[in-house]
Amino acid sequence: MSSNNQQTILFPDILSSLKKSGRSLEKCNANLSFCSHTLNLHTREVPRINQALKNSQFFELVSVSEIRAAQYQLTSELEPQIKELVRMTENGLVKLQKREQMLRVNISKRKRLMMDDDEDLNEEQQPQEEAEEEEEQYSENQATIDRKLEQQETLLQRLRSQKNSLLKELERLDLELSRKSGRT
């Protein structure tokens, strides 16, 4: 009986040990599950962070001060050229305005001369054919003058728009330069 007694004494110890180890295993599994969930939660953003780091590494090849220096140098190189282009555009615009005014004066003079010629023709009673010929010539001259005037007006409008766009670009560059000089 003593061996039987020993077995019963050992058996409850084994059962209690198994129960304890089962509970410990369950706790380990719960801890492992919690750790796995936490790890998954915190590593979900790793690909996005890696991409952001790659992008920032790419941009760190050139420092901000080097970029500002290059922008300042570009602005200082382009500003005189842009100002010269604006000045040339303004001069061209003035010349075109003078030419337009001169053409308008010439047109009005020719109209007056044509009217005077028409009155003289009526007084002298030239044949009808000559009057028709002069009228055709006048119409042709008028059409040519009108076409040239339209071309000049179109050119004037184009130059004005170029001048305005250059002035806006110059203002934008001046503003950018003043902002950058205020920062540095």
UniProtKB/TrEMBL annotation:
Q: Which UniProt keywords apply?
A: Centromere, Chromosome, Cytoplasm, Cytoskeleton, Kinetochore, Nucleus
**What does the entry list under GO cellular component?**
DASH complex; spindle microtubule
Q: From the UniProt record, give one GO term of the biological process aspect.
A: attachment of spindle microtubules to kinetochore
Q: Does the keyword Nucleus apply?
A: yes
Main subcellular localization, coarse class? nucleus
Q: Where in the cell is it found?
A: Chromosome, Centromere, Kinetochore; Cytoplasm, Cytoskeleton, Spindle; Nucleus
- What are the transmembrane regions? none
Where are the compositionally biased (Acidic residues) regions?
A: 116-138
UniProt keyword Cytoplasm, yes or no:
yes
Q: Which domain of life is it from?
A: Eukaryota
Where is the region Disordered?
Answer: 114-149
The UniProt entry's sequence similarity note says:
Belongs to the DASH complex SPC19 family.
Q: What is this protein identified as? A: DASH complex subunit SPC19
Supply the source organism for this entry.
Puccinia graminis f. sp. tritici
